[in-house]
Amino acid sequence: MFLNKSCQVAALLLCFWALNTGYPHKYFAEKVTALLGEDAVLPCSFEFPKGVPVPYIIQWHKKGIKIPIYIWYAGYPPHIGEGYDGRVSLTGQASLNLTDLQEHDQGTYTCIVNFFDRSPDQKRNGSLVHLFVHAPPHFSIKPPDVVYVNIGEKLALFCAAGGTPDPDITWYMDNIPLNEGSNIKINRGSLEIFKVRESHIGDYVCRARNSEGSIVANTKVIVAGPAVITVPPRNLTKLEGDKAELICEAKALPANLTHRWLFNDKDISQLTWLVTRTVVRTDGTLFINPTSAEDSGLYTCEVFNGIGTPERASAYLSVEYPARVTYSPTIQYLPLGLSGIIRCYVKANPPFLHIKWSKDNRPFDPKSHHGVFSLSNGSLQIQRVIHEHQGWYVCTPYNAYGTTGKSNKMEVLVRDPPIFTIKPEERYQQRVNSKVTMPCHGTGQPKPDIHWRRTDGKQLSRDRAIQSNGNLTIRTLKKEDHGRYECVLQNDIAILVTSTLLIVEGTTPHAPTNVTVETSAFSASLSWLPAYDGNYPQSYVIWYRLLEQAESPWRTIRVDPDEASTFTIYNLQPNSEYEFRVLSRNTLGDGMFSPTVRGKTTPWDFLGGVYPTDAYGATYIPTVQKPSGPKPSPPRNVTVQETENGLLISWLPPLNQKVPVAFYYVEYRTQSKPWKRWGPIKHATSYLAKELAPGHYNFRVYAYSIMSVGQASSEVSLTLAAESYEVTKSRAITAGVVGGILFFIAAIVLSVCAVKICNKRKRRKAEKAYMMVTCPVAEARNGGHSHGGSPSPIKKKRANEDGGTLGRKLSNPFVCG
Questions:
Q1: In 455-576, at which residue ranges do the beta strands (DSSP E only) sit?
Q2: Full-model pTM
Q3: pLDDT tens, position by position, 200-210
Q4: Residue 729 DSSP one-character state
Q5: What residues does 696 pair with on adjacent strands?
């Protein structure tokens, strides 16, 4: 009855708390301070509405805890939160008494008083209290007692402490406080010395102090180093039964060396068949006594002193012994009419030289029997088995140490091999989600076992693949069922295999195979073998990414044309490693990725004039807008010099040539104006700037790689005076005037020459035309004949002697000859 009533009240209280929980308005936090382990009273008071007592509930909350840590209602047991059992109670009107204070008790507490019969204007009373639990400091992280370091290495000592108030941590070396410097950093109590010197060797103290006390942690820093193997083990050859000794000597400071020996990368202490015959001496030497044939292998000595990484050294132990037969089967079967093997299980070190065979107590030389061959493992292979090969066989192996004996007699029986009575068809072609049954039956003595397997080594589906009476049935065909299957017919006589191809249609394409890549400085050519396309035309998408960049995203490019199985990707970075994979797709969607292959582009021959290519293979010099590749180092020794032709800006290439420079840009500005630039500048480390106005200039040079731009060089300043500018300007004007005059004179001379040449040509044409007209008329009047010849001009002297009549008659200066 009491439990039911308590449950009801608890439910009532929780509901009431869920509906009315809230923090007091406009409260100022009171501060209460107490020591660790003592008691504290968190004050809280309230007033009844209108001074009339009414039922009320007191709730104490702690910031960071969702459920109240204390709920009180008159007449019922209080609710106490987890971690406060036996430590909280009410005192006074609503104050909370908290005993045995812990560090986690520190925080902000809220007291809320809710009245059942409350008026709207008097909703709740309470208080806000911040509790400070003072505690002396205590270490949460302490540096080790002894630290071994090497000169020049980095030293890090970690020290952290808790307490209230938060303790201050101070580091001392040899009782002298340490301060931060270029080689020493102190951050949140941790001490770092970036490069240890001899002066840093000594005693260090980490001191944590607050108002409640202080504590210290001492550390001794000693020059030391990891273990080093001075005498490593050497390869060893022993006869079986002898003892073997593998030396492994080492030195270290501190000298607390531990040796561990491994056999073929397995701890010898865990090999029960070997550990009973081994002893590890204090100097690290491994003894094996006696040795056995199984002891041959790789032995590794590992030494460690707690500093750095363990040192390792390995050596081979070869245990030699006479040739021996390890197993002699009582009966072996040979398939009649087929190829068969008579096995002799041999083990030898060094390898066996030859094996003697006997058949039916008579020597049997394989070389003297047609179709019988000795195999490298010691067995005999018979090309075509006949009944005469049946009998009792014995083999005896020999090596350089002889033999341990012959095998037991092995009865070899010739029997008819199993045969297929029903074979599966060469190909089965089915739609996805359909069913296929592939039959396979056989017979033989003893009765053969029939089972199916995939040629790619994958397991048959357990849920959908059923083997029954030699038949393989696959229900609800899926894409992964596509492939080649083998039916195996097996008994003690022989193993026969037949295969068939299952094609599952109506699927996304299968992953391409045999992906290869060939690279140059800026491109990669991929080729692959197409897989089954799902009975739909398929296309390809190449995915590739740069490996040298952290979390580099995959990029994609579609292969064109769709049926192509080779493709070249351009616009790659030189001397960089990439990952490539090919994705196939058809109308049903994307298929599977091919295996990922890697390829590294060749270094860039930038001195040979080879330039990068864009995504289509065209040569270009890129404008780097989104730098994504490794950055070249800045140019060096930038200088600016005034010359007669202008300002000559010159520089030296970057000191680090790991990232080749494709071209340069020179930037300049005056005062606070934006930067302007000249370029790109290829195959040169200088630039001539002309016609700059007077003023104060700043210059800098950028080096560009194919995919990125490096940092700017150091800036160089120069003031271009007005005088030099005027001189340059006047020289330019004078040169322009003189050039103009010379050009004008040359033009006049050329014009006169042209006119004279034209007039001379016109005169010659007129003379010829006149002679052709006048000469025939004059001949006819004189009764003469026309004579061939050319008209000749009358000399000016003759014309003057003949007088005016003749001159008027021959007003035209031509006469017929």
A1: 465-468, 471-474, 483-490, 495-505, 513-519, 524-529, 539-546, 555-558, 566-569
A2: 0.44
A3: 888 999 999 99
A4: H
A5: 719
